[in-house]
Amino acid sequence: MSPQALQRTLVRSLYDPAWHARVCSAPAQELADIPLTDQERAWLLALDARALRADGLRRRRTLKALTDEYKVSSALAVARTRKLSALDAFFSGPHFHCCVQHRTAMAHAYAQHLGDLAAQHQDDRLRHVVALEDAMARVRRGRAPAQPSRWDLHAAYVCAPHVLPHALPGGVLESVHAVERILFEITLTPVVALAEDGPRLNDLPPLQEGQHRNVLLERSPHGEVTLSDASEGLCGLLLAAAMPLAGTQLLEVARHHGADPGEDAEVVSGVVRDGLLVASAT
Amino acid sequence: MAPPPPFSSRVTRLPTLGLGISTEYGAAGVGALHPLTLHRAHPQLVQFLEVGVETARGLDADAQAWSASRLPTTYHFLDINFDEPQDRDTAWLNDVKAACRQLRPAWLCGDAGLWHFGPRDRGHMLLLPPVLSQDAVGPMADGIRWLRDATGLEVLPENPPGHMYVGDLHLLDFYARLADAADTGLLLDCAHLCIFQRQRGLDALTGLDAFPLDRVVEMHVAGGSLHSQDGFDWVEDDHTPDPLPDTWRIFEHVAARAPNLRAVVYECERNSEAEVLPGFARLRDTLLASPMGARMKKGRA
């Protein structure tokens, strides 16, 4: 495990040379929880700081991949802060360092960073759009089962990895579409981003926190994520099955959301047949 | 179950592919050479295609056109960290097998280093060399054996490039130990080795005298650019058409001494035909005078 732990500190150093400088100043503090041998620690401290800076575009390339996926929330964050460094700061922050050292997904760590910006600026629109794009990122990484599971009252089921129910306040989707239009305009003529009279994210539709819209996010076989309106009952069923639930429990959930006794099994088995609930491996 | 035969026996069954070119998904869209067009114009210079595969992207039109022509290929992975057991997942393996059914590669190969941090994901393409220590050999060898057992194909680890190297072993010593631990052949990237030797202030051929050249099945040759910043000098492995003189030295030294060499890739796909033909010609001339050349002359490549 030790070479892997060292390798991860190298990644952190490459993305954040300032962190490496702090490691060199206070190794006991910065490396307290990382299982390195004395030799490995010495290798890390001996790195040539100039080598860490040789690839000046490392952060920018990675940021491109992240902003491709969190396109609208990244745009909203920059519009709010007026600073690209607000996004770039991700690579110096705790979420990035934690995801590298603990081998968790960078995309969701970036979403946490954007969520922090939303909280810091008390920007509810940004908070909701981050949540939506992060849900889409999760669905994008899920694969549909090769074939639907069979319905069995006594088996356990879980929400399929390629779908996710999501609730949105009114105005969020409209904001997303408005931002996408502006980003498209910038893509057509990139110089408009430098112009004072270029497109700005000033007049976005208002949020309507009291009006929730239930949607189902679903990854297509080709990898695109689609968004469609879904009933509260279906969303409730899939949300309840975030953890494995027995068939009998799913019938209870269906009845809670309005299915009549006798109709409940038909509803749940239909969702299983559609591949939205899959038999749990555990 | 009987243990598989040793590498020394398995290698005799590997085909001689000769001289080839590499491609990655979407390369043609950014002005790269079309491998099939180049092959048809120069069949003696471009004999096989090394297809760089990121399973999330699959195979592009160039790779599919080449495989449809039933010409030889090798599969160059771009998305497996061999030393991480979490990376050895069924979904990825199924994607690899599906691509192999289409490409029918002679073997799998690729940089044995850190392609991504965290779970396999889009946008990483990090590629760091491994920590060059004995402790790092075993986990990486486990991953190579796993992929070989799972696909039934040879898996040739390649020495990656880097701006910095960490550990107490010479790069060649690390990969020699890895080949021994995984009982596998190797892909020696001459340009990457050249980068390492310069970083350590060593002569280009340092360490080759003790390196198991009989394990070298494939070699890569590519151009690189010299850079300097704040007094720090490094080589960018940018696949320009002109390999550095030390890259040529390494290639010519090893080609003359590697008895099991089967394939050489000139990584130059993002240049014009006129720029790359002299390099191909030099590679072919060298190979024809090498042990591999005898097999090439027999028409097996």
What is the topology?
The complex is a heterodimer of chains A (282) and B (301).
Chain A: H1 2-15, H2 17-25, H3 27-30, H4 38-45, H5 49-52, H6 58-69, H7 71-81, H8 85-88, H9 94-101, H10 106-120, H11 124-140, E1 156-159, E2 163-170, H12 172-188, E3 208-219, E4 225-229, H13 232-240, E5 245-246, H14 247-256, H15 264-273, E6 277-279
Antiparallel strand pairs in A: 1-5, 1-6, 2-3, 3-4
Chain B: H1 7-10, E1 18-24, H2 35-41, E2 48-53, H3 61-68, E3 73-77, H4 90-103, E4 108-111, H5 137-151, E5 155-158, H6 171-182, E6 186-189, H7 190-199, E7 216-222, E8 225-229, E9 232-236, H8 245-255, E10 263-267, H9 273-288, H10 291-300
Overall description:
The complex is a heterodimer of chains A (282) and B (301). Chain A has 282 residues and is α+β, with helices and mostly antiparallel strands. In chain A, β3 and β4 form a beta hairpin. In chain A, 54% of the residues lie in helices and 12% in strands. In chain A, the strands form two sheets. A three-stranded antiparallel beta sheet of chain A has the order 5-1-6. In chain A, strands 2-3-4 form a three-stranded antiparallel beta sheet, with helices on both faces. Chain A has 15 helices and six strands. Chain A starts with a helix and ends with a strand. The relative contact order of chain A is 0.11. The mean pLDDT of chain A is 94. Chain A is globular. Chain A has helices spanning 2-15, 17-25, 27-30, 38-45, 49-52, 58-69, 71-81, 85-88, 94-101, 106-120, 124-140, 172-188, 232-240, 247-256, 264-273, and strands at residues 156-159, 163-170, 208-219, 225-229, 245-246, 277-279. Chain B is an alpha/beta fold. Chain B has helices at 7-10, 35-41, 61-68, 90-103, 137-151, 171-182, 190-199, 245-255, 273-288, 291-300, and strands at 18-24, 48-53, 73-77, 108-111, 155-158, 186-189, 216-222, 225-229, 232-236, 263-267. In chain B, the strands form two sheets. Chain B has an eight-stranded parallel beta sheet with strand order 5-4-3-2-1-10-7-6. In chain B, strands 8-9 form a two-stranded antiparallel ribbon. In chain B, α5 links the parallel β4 and β5. In chain B, α5 crosses α6 (171-182) and α7 (190-199) packs across α8 (245-255). The longest helix of chain B has 16 residues, at 273-288. Chain B is globular. The relative contact order of chain B is 0.14. Classes of the chains: A alpha+beta (282), B alpha/beta (301). The A-B interface holds A 2-4, 6-8, 10-11, 14, 39-40, 43-44, 47-48, 50-55, 61-62, 64-66, 68-69, 99-100, 103-107, 141, 143 and B 83-84, 86, 91, 114, 117-119, 121-124, 126, 128, 130-131, 133, 135-136, 139, 163-164, 166-168, 227, 229-232, 234.
